[in-house]
Amino acid sequence: MPGIGGGEIEIPNVALVIGTRPQIIKSVPIIDAARTSNAMKLSIIHTGQHYDYEMSQVFFSQFSLPDPVANLEVGSGSHIEQIAQIMLRLEQHLLGNRPNCVLVPGDTNSALAASLTANRLGIPVAHVEAGARSYEPTLPEETNRLIIDHLATMLFTPTATCVRNLKLEGIPRKRIFATGDTMFDLFAHYRAEVMQNRIVEEQDLSGETFALVTVHRWNSVENKEVLSGIVNAILRLNESIFVFPLHPHTRGKLEKFDLLRKLQTAGHVRIIEPVGYFETIKLAASARVVVTDSGGLQKEAFWVGTPCVTLREKTEWVETVRRGANILAGTSERNIVASVRMALARPKKLPRSPNPFGDGQASNGIVSAITQMVQKSADHS
């Protein structure tokens, strides 16, 4: 197996590349598992893919994460610009530090750029959340997933469906590791602490019937017609309070398309600043319905038993749909309104066993597998 360096390796040096809030969430249990086991030296590289880098600091603080060894500060820009800048800046860092493996979580431009860079430098790539497929060719994340998975040396899958997807694409079974979902690791570990969070009381939502809504994906916010349909649906659904933690990029698009004021003046819409992990899960658990375009929040709503309406035509997390916990509404105003009202009629219900997202030990399996891979590579070099 090719790699930078060579010879006997006592403790693998692994570069974890992240650039967005969801990537941090996926990585927290892996960072903890690496620290606990002392099996590898894990260095965090933050690409700064989102211009709100400081906003991600809430997660570093909440989980006492080590500071990144580098922030590439690529900022916002077109997909091509982001990927190119990450590759150029990351190349210099990887050449200077020579990790034994590059670990990438999820399906962001940061994950794609890191995978391409490592591959060109001959560094093994390990992909967390491998095999997720929604089969939406226009979704940028779908293209990213496909390329990353076919470049990666190790593919860590969150569900059995993801394993099947990779096999159907001809990826050798020896590269696939059915570990489970690191996001469920995090949820299972912090479940009790989450439920003690005071965000509901702080927002005066105790005893209220409310919906939690999040919108951030490129396909949702870049098109005025699509974003208008989502906003108009929320305005029509005035039988419930809508709590809307507003991402800075989404806020900018709402302002650009003259939609923000409509939400601000609606009596049933409560716009709040972006919140941390504990606050998000507590809001989802306390809500009557979750309305989102987020892949992660679909799963989190499922784990806390809250019906979810997803603002997409398809989802990579088909298990949530098959179990009746998730409704795919798309982005048309009429479908969103109908789907939310349908979800409100469904009872809140915790998922039955077995959990399709694993047993909460995915991160330990990932750390162990990477350590063995690097050592085996050293033995054969």
Q: So, the CATH homologous superfamily of the largest domain? A: Glycogen Phosphorylase B
Mean pLDDT: 93
The proportion of residues in beta strands is 5-15%
Query: Using only CA atoms, what is the Rg?
Result: 20 Å
Number of domains: 2
The portion of residues assigned to helices is 40-55%
Strand order of the largest sheet: 3-2-1-4-5-6-7
Estimate the global geometry from the Cα principal axes: globular
Indicate the low-confidence ranges by residue numbers: 1-7
Structural class: alpha/beta
Descriptive notes:
The structure is a single chain. With 381 residues, this protein is an alpha/beta fold. It folds into two domains: 13-181 and 358-380, Glycogen Phosphorylase B (Rossmann fold), CATH 3.40.50.2000; 191-344, Glycogen Phosphorylase B (Rossmann fold, 3-Layer(aba) Sandwich), CATH 3.40.50. Helices cover 47% and strands 14% of the residues. The chain is built from 17 helices and 13 strands. The strands form two sheets. Strands 3-2-1-4-5-6-7 form a seven-stranded parallel beta sheet, sandwiched between helices. It has a six-stranded parallel beta sheet with strand order 10-9-8-11-12-13, sandwiched between helices. Helix 3 packs across helix 4 (109-120), helix 7 (182-195) crosses helix 13 and helix 10 (224-236) packs parallel to helix 16. The protein is globular and about 65 Å long.
Features:
14% strand, seven-stranded parallel sheet, 381 residues, alpha/beta, 47% helix, Rossmann fold
In short:
The chain contains 17 helices and 13 strands.
